[in-house]
Specification:
heterodimer; A: mainly alpha; 6 helices; 75% helix; globular; B: alpha+beta; four-stranded antiparallel sheet; 16% helix
Chain lengths: 176, 134
């Protein structure tokens, strides 16, 4: 439980940092907070990761003042889609797929979910489709990047012999 | 296990072939969609004639249409990004001289024969302003 709280705080901090980075396309994110979500997913399990995702979005939007506002539905849809995709990928595709692949799947689902919500609620299918290509490209790169960071963290944890953060899963590709 | 941490993908390293495959698939799809020639823009041409003749033709179809009117048949050609009047039975042929209608809101019109060719956006809108000056 304490670990979940810590990861929630981490995801909030990462989200705050990410919000300060200007992006050419609105609503298309790098997903730095996904590093914490991914770690939660791989060490604590899907339910915790889902809870952290929803809580992170709720708290962040409440603090910024956009709770239940226009951007809120987009963030929620994207976040839930992302953690769902990562959970499915980790559960069913993990042996061939690694941490980076799960992260990429999550990033793609996150951005696609946001675009779907954007198209449904605000700009219509034509407007959303125009953002599809850059969203896909960005999510591939960003997902790989955040996945590598998460992988790095897991490796570091394995090396330091810290069992507190690691759940029942083993990561043979990392050597745990 | 050695203390050396390598983040670069190595042959049997933590970044698997499936990871790389997924990344390539996503990147490839994104690149293909990026260079798709305006498949999603979907502008169209609305042609109105006499007697309630009305037709909407999307760009890229390469059609030539014969629009009937009181004076005869006005031939309209719809191309990749615009539509123009090819021939018309009117005396002045202004409609042909006007040039192609190639942007939302632009029109080619044959007044004597009652033919109006207008470019509309994908959602059926016409742009509000004809000209913007600064």
């Amino acid at each position: 439980m304490a670990t979940a709280g810590m990861l929630l705080g981490l995801s909030l901090a990462l989200y705050a940092v990410e919000s300060a980075i200007p992006m050419p396309f609105p609503f298309v994110r790098i997903g730095l907070a996904n590093i914490a979500i991914l770690l939660a997913l791989l060490t604590l399990g899907f339910i915790d990761a889902l809870a952290i995702t929803v809580l992170r979005i709720a708290i962040a939007s409440a603090v910024v003042g956009t709770f239940l506002g226009p951007g809120f539905a987009l963030g929620l849809t994207g976040g839930v889609a992302g953690v769902l995709a990562m959970g499915l990928a980790a559960r069913f595709a993990m042996p061939p797929l690694g941490v980076v692949g799960v992260s990429v799947a999550g990033a793609v689902a996150h951005n696609l979910g946001q675009l779907a919500a954007l198209g449904l609620l605000y700009v219509g299918p034509a407007g959303a489709l125009r953002l599809l290509a850059p969203a896909l490209l960005l999510s591939a790169v960003a997902g790989a990047g955040t996945g590598l960071v998460a992988l790095f963290v897991l490796e570091k944890l394995a090396l330091s012999g810290n069992n507190g953060l690691l759940g029942a899963r083993t990561f043979p590709e990392v050597g745990i | 296990m050695t203390a050396h941490i390598s983040v670069a993908p190595v042959r049997r390293g933590p970044v698997t072939w499936a990871d790389r495959l997924l990344i390539y698939i996503v990147l490839g799809t994104g690149l293909v969609l990026l260079f798709l020639p305006h498949a999603e823009d979907g502008g169209a041409v609305r042609i109105t004639g006499a007697d309630g003749f009305r037709l909407e033709v999307p760009f890229g179809t390469g059609m030539t249409l014969d629009v009937p009117g009181p004076l005869g048949t006005t031939v309209v050609e719809v191309g990749e990004s615009g539509a123009r009047v090819v021939s018309s039975p009117c005396p002045n042929k202004l409609c042909i001289a006007m040039g192609p209608a190639d942007a939302p809101g632009r029109s080619a019109v044959c007044v004597p024969n009652g033919v109006i060719v207008t470019v509309v956006g994908a959602e059926g809108r016409e742009r509000a302003a004809d000209v913007i000056t600064r």
